[in-house]
Design goal:
The protein is an alpha/beta fold and 391 residues long. The protein is built from 14 helices and 13 strands. The strands form 4 sheets. The chain has a 7-stranded mixed sheet with strand order 2-10-9-8-7-3-4, sandwiched between helices. Bound molecules: (2S)-2-hydroxybutanedioic acid (LMR). The site of (2S)-2-hydroxybutanedioic acid (LMR) has 6 residues, from loops.
Length: 391
């Protein structure tokens, strides 16, 4: 049986981890996978997470199964963190193994309820979106998103493409901090997209993996909240990997907004899907998040540290834009300061990205996406000088 398998193409983002690890040059710089790092290159365990883990060790009496949907208190706390108050009666939700697990469950839910629905993806998008869709054999289409000339949004192209969405199609939108580009819709553009998708009878499907990394915890949820209020049905796949720094704990949630009288049936289907794929969602990370969000002091400390993280990335963006202006003697890269989140797509060719890796030991995804948090005050000028050399 197994001899029929063909080799799988390597995941472009995860492949960089191995390539970087085997590079012996001490000056190497890792701007690949989307993981936050402090100035020393460490991905720290956040203070509130450590405190919650300590407390959990003391109070946890059992590790028996939770429910198929995960811990109800976790689901309630995250629905509130993402949507604010007022959605409890419309929100069906399940814990998932990370944001990827939530995306996968959302896609299967779409497939179960409307196998003909096309899933629309921004071009470009996080490469795992099309990969899972292809694996599931679902119909899909792209909408224009990024303008390579300005490194901003191609809003005309986006609206023209979404004009062709059919009723019942699902449109995947990055709630904030677009991955891989770093370019985000303005509030006014969001309003126009919402009005268009309402007119089309589309189902918004929001991927929210970086809440708190762009303009702040509340602002980063603003578009998702507008969407939640505007549509009868919305899917939201969210991750705690980044904003709680608990990547390997696999802590995510899928929220399906529906009408109060359909909620129980939708909830039952979400639990069914969890059962088919992995039974119970991972608990440890979800429990830590719940403990933090239910404790005022821990919440305050977590928010303060998350804000430090965000400010650090904003500072690096500004510094990088300034250094690139100096090094290239042009404003070509000013967009880096305006982008938000962990990533910016620099607009370099694959050959230039390869030269940065081979000649300068600087690692980024081949589409020239960089993880801003992979930089620090000392490596920013190194990157800027290297870019100036290869362009
Ligand atoms: C990324 O885009 O680098 C992260 O979301 C990590 C991943 O799983 O790809």
């Amino acid at each position: 049986m197994l001899e029929t398998l063909n080799p799988q193409p390597q995941d472009k983002i995860l492949q960089l981890i191995t390539m970087y690890a085997s590079d012996v040059r001490p000056s190497k710089i890792d701007l690949g996978v989307g993981v936050y790092k402090d100035a020393t290159g460490l991905t720290p365990v956040m203070r509130a997470v450590k405190a919650a883990e300590k407390k959990l060790w003391e109070v946890e009496k059992t590790k028996t199964y939770t429910g198929l949907a995960g811990e109800p208190a976790y689901n309630a706390a995250l629905v509130k963190m993402i949507l604010g108050p007022g959605f409890a009666d419309r929100a069906a939700s399940v814990g998932t193994p990370g944001g990827t697990g939530a995306i996968r469950q959302a896609l299967e839910l779409i497939q179960m309820s409307n196998p003909k629905a096309k899933v629309w993806l921004s071009n470009p998008t996080w490469q795992n979106h099309p990969s899972i869709i292809k694996y599931l054999g679902m119909p899909t289409a792209d909408y224009r998103y990024f303008d390579v000339e300005t490194s901003g949004i191609d809003f005309e192209g986006l609206m023209a493409d979404l004009e062709t969405v059919a009723a019942g199609d699902a449109v995947l939108l990055h709630g904030c901090c677009h991955n891989p580009t770093g370019a985000n819709l303005t509030p006014d553009q969001w309003d126009q997209v919402i009005a268009l998708l309402q007119r089309k009878g589309a189902v918004p499907f929001v991927d929210l993996a970086y809440q708190g990394f762009g303009d702040g915890l509340e602002d980063d949820a603003a578009a998702t909240r507008k969407i939640a209020a505007a549509f009868p049905e919305v899917l939201i796949a969210a991750s705690c990997s980044k904003n709680f720094g608990i990547y390997r704990e696999r802590t995510g949630i899928l929220i399906a907004l529906t009408s109060p009288d359909r909620r129980a049936v939708v909830q039952g289907n979400l639990a069914f899907l969890n059962r088919q794929n992995f039974s119970f969602p991972p608990d440890h990370g979800a429990r830590l998040v719940t403990m933090i969000l239910e404790d005022e002091a821990l919440t305050a400390d977590w928010k303060a540290e998350l804000e430090e993280v965000r400010q650090n990335m904003l500072g690096l963006r500004k510094q990088l834009a300034d250094e690139l202006r100096r090094a290239t003697n042009s404003d070509r890269f000013d967009f880096v300061a305006h982008h938000r989140g962990m990533f910016s797509r620099l607009g370099l060719t694959e050959a230039q990205v390869a030269r940065l890796r081979e000649e300068h030991a600087i690692y980024m995804v081949s589409d020239s996406r960089i993880n801003i948090a992979g930089l620090n005050a000392k490596t920013v000028p190194v990157l800027a000088a290297a870019i100036a050399q290869v362009i």
